[in-house]
Design goal:
This is Dabb family protein. Keywords: Signal. InterPro entries: Dabb, Dimeric_a/b-barrel, HS1/DABB1-like. Homodimer. By secondary structure, this protein is of the alpha+beta class. The protein has one domain: Alpha-Beta Plaits, CATH 3.30.70.100. Helix content is about 45%, strand content about 25%. It has four helices and four strands. The protein has a four-stranded antiparallel β-sheet, sandwiched between helices. Helix 2 packs antiparallel against helix 4. The radius of gyration is 15 Å and the shape is globular. The two termini are about 25 Å apart.
């Protein structure tokens, strides 16, 4: 239950910043990705992976906005997840175009072997 609460709290905080900066619309779809790297992932490798993720918006036009950061929560509920990425799409159709996109697949090959865990949550804002 704590994990669900922590994840929802993170998503809510991410949305607060995203909506103010990116002028989100009610139909926007938010794609939240959380990474826990394997111990053998060097700082240089992590930097390479982050740079490759940052490059996706220039390769995939359906990505409406992109932001990322490292965990700095004092709550200690992160379960080792260290990096958070928040992508926004205009709708589910654009997200569905992104998922099988060759650039996204290529990124998946780069990152896959270096992750100890990954969490992905997609949602459309339901707040009133």
């Amino acid at each position: 239950m704590k994990t669900v609460f922590a994840t929802l709290l993170f998503i809510g905080l991410a949305l607060t910043g995203a909506s103010a900066q990116n002028k989100m619309t009610p139909s926007d779809l938010t794609h939240v990705v959380l990474f826990k790297f394997k111990p053998e992932a060097t700082p240089a490798k992590v930097k390479e992976i982050v740079a490759a993720f940052e490059a996706l918006p220039s390769k995939i036009k359906e990505i409406k906005s992109f932001k990322w950061g490292t965990n700095n929560s004092p709550e200690k509920l992160d379960k080792g997840l260290t990096h958070a990425f928040v992508l926004t799409f205009a709708n589910e159709k654009d997200r569905d175009t992104y998922l099988p996109h060759p650039a996204h697949k290529e990124f998946g090959k780069l990152v896959g072997g270096w992750l100890a865990d990954v969490t992905v949550v997609d949602f459309t804002n339901q707040a009133k």
